[in-house]
Write a structure and sequence with these properties.
single chain, about 290 residues, alpha+beta, two-stranded antiparallel sheet, 9 strands
């Protein structure tokens, strides 16, 4: 995944259906275009091809179009508005992929998987071009079922196969991985990155836990030890901020009639437990990738 430096984005002008493929070199664009034609041949023949005047388009790409009878049209240099459909989609896909990477445990090495997943998500949502039919349904006309969408980077468990590799009858017969997208050729599978080897393989027998995602940093100590009640409030702070007009509770008064506020063991006045490492900074409440927002 990390070796891909470029991406080819193809958009159907009539349905706004999109497809993304990672490239190691820009000159491999004609190979990706040929793969798109083979995978989507059941939807019909390509009538026209609108591209810019890049060097990767004028060589083998144009030759492939000539050999397969596909008319090719070019936009003027430095005129992206003439090819505005794909230019606008490039912006939307990059923005969506960036959000997926920020909310996942991965770095920039998974950018092409995030971009491909963003393309699948785009295909299965309506847009202002057609507010009633998704690009996927409009393109395939019922020939393919939509994918089941999942949270990018969520933890998933895959069944250990073959059965002889399982350690015992009472142990969990699965190994942990991370959801990284969908396969173009195996439509019933999802792509799973192994947590140990890092290999990305298509798997069908997967159970996803989309409520949890791996975070590269451990949460601060204060976030793990703050006492909370059933409704999520901190008991010490709730008692401290009670109204001064309320009569004192005899059960909480000392011999002089002064009200005592109970605190958890080893806690400060506001109910926050004392850290064994001394004074600590407050736990973050927001930020990119922080555990407080997960």
């Amino acid at each position: 995944v990390g070796v891909c430096r470029w991406a080819l984005v193809i958009v159907c002008h009539g349905t706004r259906y999109s497809w993304t493929k990672g490239l190691r070199r820009k000159g491999d664009a004609y190979l990706a275009f040929g793969e798109f034609c083979r995978l989507h041949s059941a939807a019909g023949k390509i009538e026209k091809c609108y591209t810019d005047c890049g060097g990767e388009i004028l060589g083998n790409f144009s030759r492939y179009c000539d050999d397969n009878g596909i008319p090719q049209y070019f936009s003027c240099p430095y005129s992206p508005f003439e090819n505005s459909v794909v230019e606008r989609l490039n912006y939307s896909l990059k923005k969506t992929a960036r959000c997926m990477l920020l909310e996942s445990p991965f770095g920039d090495e998974m950018w092409i998987r995030a971009l491909h997943t963003a393309s699948v998500v785009h295909n299965q949502h309506v847009n202002r071009w057609d507010r009633f039919v998704t690009p996927h349904d409009s393109f395939w006309q019922g020939q393919r079922k939509p994918r089941q969408l999942h949270v990018f980077g969520s933890i998933c468990y895959t069944l250990t196969l073959p059965e002889s590799k399982r350690t015992g009858n009472l142990h969990i017969p699965a190994k942990i991985g991370y959801f990284v997208g969908y396969s173009d050729t195996k439509l019933t599978c999802v792509l799973v990155a192994d947590a140990v080897t890092g290999a990305i393989l298509p798997r069908r027998d997967v159970v996803l836990d989309e409520h949890w995602r791996l975070h590269p940093d451990k949460p601060p100590l204060d976030m793990l030890t703050i006492p909370t009640t059933y409704d999520g409030s901190r008991p010490g702070a709730a008692l401290q901020h009670s109204s001064v007009d309320d009569p004192p509770d005899p059960a909480l008064s000392d011999e002089g009639g002064h009200e005592q506020i109970p605190h958890p063991p080893d806690a400060h006045v506001d109910g926050t437990p004392a850290s064994p490492l001394g004074p600590t900074t407050p736990a973050p409440t927001s930020g990119n990738g922080s555990s407080a927002t997960s």
